[in-house]
Amino acid sequence: MTFSAFELVKNALTGQAGWQPHWRKARPKPAYDVVIIGGGGHGLATAYYLAKNFSITNVAVIEKGWIGSGNAGRNTTIIRSNYMLPGNIPFYELGMKLWESMEQDLNFNTMVSQRGVLNLYHSDAQRDSFARRGNAMRIHGVDAELLEREAVRAMVPYLDFDNARFPIRGGLLQRRGGTARHDAVVWGYARAADRRGVDIIENCEVTGLRIEHGKILGVETTQGFVGAGKVGLSVAGSSSRVAAMAGMRLPIEAHVLQAFVSESLKPVIDCVVTFGAGHFYISQSDKGSLVFGGDLDPYPSYAQRGSLATFCDVMENAVAMLPMLSRLRILRNWGGLIDMSMDGSPIIDRTPTDGLFFNGGWCYGGFKATPAAGFCLAHFIASGDPHPAAASYRLDRFARGCVIDEKGAGPSPNLH
After folding, report:
1. Residues 6+ positions from 167 with CB-CB distance below 8 Å
2. Residue 189 in contact with residue 43, Cβ under 8 Å?
3. What is the pLDDT of residue 415?
4. Predicted confidence band of residue 183 (pLDDT cuts 50, 70, 90)
5. What is the separation, in whole angstroms, between the first and last Cα of the chain?
6. In whole angstroms, what is the distance from residue 333 CA to residue 348 CA?
7. What angle do CA 374, 412, 311 make, to 5 degrees?
């Protein structure tokens, strides 16, 4: 079914009885040309672009839970491309362009809202750092504006501009940044991939990888063996565990990142705002809730729940930036498993096993990278060569000393 104004009117007049499921409940076939492990945004986007861009439709996406049950449904929905290093800017700008055309491409309302992303600065040194970042962005053709204090006040008047410790001096604005509905992105890619013949297999856990003479032959699952000419791994926080099935030890740690949703308010924040004096970011959903988060838990964990200490730290940053939040009630919070690399940047590369490709190490950037990660991994799987926008995301860059340390925190995953 193609979504259109005609379909909307027709179903409104027929008791909404004509809508069809977005994708088939497929059962695994004996073998596929490509198997993607992981039914989140990255895995589904990879399958979609394999089918759309390379006409490779004999593809299966294998997900141990239900579609979108992992990090795709456990994030704060921010999309942006305000990066500074040459290895990152082309990739995230490709992603931003894919976000801008996504709804027309997928024929699905993913609720992309380019409301702007504003990064606050609080000192002269921080202003200079943001100016450098903005200049790097503009050199690469990415929009960036350095705002003074009064321009920020006109955009977001409720901030604490005169905080004794962290007075707001201005901010770096990317107007094309914003938010998207995380669940809708997953559903849109699943529906679009299914329409092109991709099998989406839910509640099917991968228990092993069958490898002979250094070549991948397929995957062992709870629904039996599935043969594959090529296999792509896109499993976020479970990357190290799945890669270990191929005898790989990745430069990645799994950490928990918490997100929070408040009770609904009248419109108070019409853009995404990040606090420059602490790690805190906030936006307002279409339902009126404030959606925000901060630092991840500092210790490795596979739990999808966070610690009270990090909860308190996020709330302290929230109140320092927006004192009125101290009277707000938090309705719910959750944790996602974040695959933290040693330099804070991702990996999209082939592995030592012939036919096995890896996509991971996304740190805080997994959701915003969804379309570009799928696009570039599909290109790599189909052509055997990395996409130019992701050419720096090699697995061996740590051994070669060619790290992409956007934050300058060194080889400490919890600090990125």
Report:
1. 122, 161
2. no
3. 87
4. very high
5. 43
6. 30
7. 85
